[in-house]
Specification:
73% helix; elongated
Length: 172
């Protein structure tokens, strides 16, 4: 955490009206994070607002164990999970428009990722697609290091088996 971020957080803790600069700094990143999971711009805007409202209410509890962005993303992922529960969405195959699909095999891999259990899917998405470090993912998902690697290895094992099975069946 840089000194500027630390000062912004301290100001927001002492007076909620000072939360605006933190919103300005992180709103776009939180919105993109949520949009990549909901695939609905209107819902992403609403959930981003909910995330920052929850962050504003709880900023006094922020202890600096991770970056403020990771703290916001933890709130965001829980907000998205609650939204999915309310909407009862099944596994959706998202539009990875920003990740240009160069071949059919990559498209099929992304489809297989979307079939994974939610936690495994999030670990794969955050680690390999978004490039987040394991420690940041552990914080965002509120999981231990061993649980992170258990989820990652389980997901990779499942993906490898499904891809091999599809290849043997001539689906590629």
């Amino acid at each position: 955490m840089d000194e500027d971020e630390r000062l912004l957080i301290e100001r927001a803790k002492s007076n909620p009206q000072n939360f605006g600069p933190l919103y300005d700094r992180y709103a776009e990143d939180v919105y993109r994070f949520i949009l990549s999971r909901t695939h609905n711009p209107d819902e992403a805007e609403n959930l981003t607002a909910d995330t920052f409202y929850k962050a504003l209410k709880s900023v006094k509890n922020f202890r600096g164990e991770a970056s403020f962005e990771s703290y916001l993303l933890r709130i965001a992922i829980n907000t998205v999970y609650d939204w999915f529960k309310r909407k009862k969405y099944a596994n959706l195959v998202p539009d990875y428009g920003e990740y240009e699909l160069k071949n059919e095999e990559l498209r099929k891999l992304l489809e297989e990722i979307e079939k994974l259990p939610l936690r495994e899917r999030e670990v794969i998405r955050m680690h390999y697609i978004e490039g987040k470090e394991p420690s940041e993912i552990e914080f965002i998902l509120n999981i231990s290091k061993s649980n992170f690697y258990r989820l990652l290895n389980g997901a990779l094992y499942r993906l490898r088996n499904e891809m091999e099975k599809n290849e043997q069946q001539g689906n590629y």
